[in-house]
Amino acid sequence: MTFLSTLALLVGLLVVAPYLAHRLRRRSAEERPFPPAHLVAPAPPRARRRARLEDRALYATRAAVIVALALLGATPFVRCSRLSLQRPGGASVAMAIVIDDSMSMRATDAAGKSRFERAHEGARELLSSAREGDAVAIVLAGLPARVALAATTDLAAARSVVDAVASSDRATDLDGAIVLARGLLASLPQVDRRIVLLSDLADGRPEAAPLGESSSVPVWIALPELRSQGTDCAVMRADRRGLRVRVAVACGPGASVIGREIIVEDAAGKPLGRAPPAAGPTSEVTVLLPSDDATAASVRLSGTDAIAVDDVAPIVREAGRGGIAVVSDSADEAVATGGAPIVEQALAALRLDLDVRPIPALPDRLDDLSGQVGVLLDDPPGLTPEQRHALAAFVEGGGLALIALGPHAAAAPLGATLEPTLSRAVTWRDTGRVGADPTSAVGALLGSATGLGDLGASRRALLAPEDAAAFEAILKWTDGAPLVARRAAGRGETWIVTLPFSVDASELPLRPAFLALLDAWVRTAREHAAPRRSDVGTVWKFLGARRLVVRGPAGPVAESREEGVPRVTPAVLGAYEIVVDGKTELRVAAPDSREIDLRPRSVTAAHGERLGERRAVVDISSQVALALLALMTIEMVLRIASKGRAGQAAT
After folding, report:
1. Cross-strand bridge partners of residue 288
2. How far apart are CA 185 and CA 97, in angstroms?
3. What gap in Å lies between CA 94 and CA 191, rounded to an integer?
4. 167-170-171 Cα angle (round to 5)
5. d(CA 537, CA 494)
6. Is residue 467's pLDDT more than 70?
7. What does residue 173 show for φ and ψ, rounded to 5 degrees?
8. Omega of the bond prior to 33 within 30 degrees of 0, cis?
9. What strands, in cross-sheet order, belong to the sheet with 312-314?
10. pLDDT tens-digit profile of 576-634?
11. Between vectors from CA 257 to CA 251 and to CA 263, what angle results, nearest 5°?
12. The overall pTM is greater than 0.85
């Protein structure tokens, strides 16, 4: 508050003057002669009680008049803390409002108000200062940065979009958001363009280059108070195996778990076990459950910190890190120097974050393939009906199969086929030294197929025409037959190679393209696999799904489609129940470790003086003047009425 506004409001102290005047006011009684009075001796004067306050309505009106006068004097100088645009040239502006909806914006101040709530209010205040002709775009800075509203002059639509923006637990993508905002403003006709960033600037990279340093459009950090630092610890994951629940806790810079406890609770919130976390920025603790049938549902970190939502995490049954099941004949396919079959050595050379599991034969039950993201069959001698059923269910459920065809597949015994992958028998035939056609390669084999011109293979597997037509060729022989092909089945895929993975049959396992083939197949298997846990904001794809229903911690989650593939993006932490084509699975959205680092990034020189201001002048003089005029009129009416009552009393 300025000195002038304080001085003007001090006039309000004069409100005591009408009170004193009314208290001191005493009417003199009209004297009339009374002859017998001279017979009575005059009494000495005594102190008399002052008259009570008279004409209270008149007094209240006069007091209100003085208060209104004080307000009238102060209103030209009264300011309120609101965001407002500045217009140096007075012309219309183009503005991109970037709202940070990441998890760090859930941090609260001493009054319990979150940073996101203040940013939300700031966006509304900016829109209230916009006027006809201004263009507004809305960008959300949670990872990945998204366009909530393309640039428009429809301010009502912009207000509706801002009102619908909700907080999330995503990571932060400030650089991506600024790039999107700059692109939205690039084609607008307004000369005056600006990006308004409503964020705490805590994106987990406090040492990164200052924000807005290389931006061609000026960036205004409109709410610098959101950059206040805080400390946070989070439960990163909780896995159960038997009676043990393994809990991982991480803390941001300056935070500590000393004095806090890890508590395992059931669905009703009843504690089942507890343990103190180890000191340090990260710790892993094992909590023992009372019995094997205890229904542990979640883990909670006691105490408080800047962000409460990441102090609780759902418990997931431990399922390992996934693996690749390899079915091969070790006697036929071992290299001359000994050791494991060459396909197993190749998978090990890729240094996959997966377990390679050699098995002698394909299991008869789907349950035996649990935890596997892919199954590799190297020249199988056909499959039994039970094996075919298990493999078909595995692929349709989202798994990937890679089948290398060779002489054993062509000589399958009676009743052992490769259906439903191949409906006809495979033939193993001498075709001469025919190589691959590098020009037919697509995808991951595009760069490595040039070395497959001569594979040294005089024999190869040939598919029936109807089977060859059902597959999409990734690489072809020079005569047009498929060398590597793929086929979708349900949510998964089946890949075939018309050569076995044996150095005796061809030189394919010795070429760099062989590693490229395996790497591409494993990458695809990862995309199809259903991860039990992933960082919040990670896109979940459901390839081949026909019907998808997802319910998260906040209720149903809408799906989106890209190139016909259903996609779901979990925006908040917690467990998600997913029903895919009638099959139910559980996935967990876990916190991103970058969001527990609440240190803000640095920024370039502030543009606030040129782009906007924090305090907008509010002049309500006209309204106060009208109220003052009304009060003075009421005061006159009451005064006339008071005199009328006095005259009537005199008569």
Report:
1. 244
2. 11
3. 8
4. 130
5. 29
6. yes
7. -130, 70
8. no
9. 271-275, 262-266, 296-301, 312-314
10. 999 988 888 899 999 999 999 999 998 875 444 455 555 544 555 666 666 766 766 77
11. 105
12. no
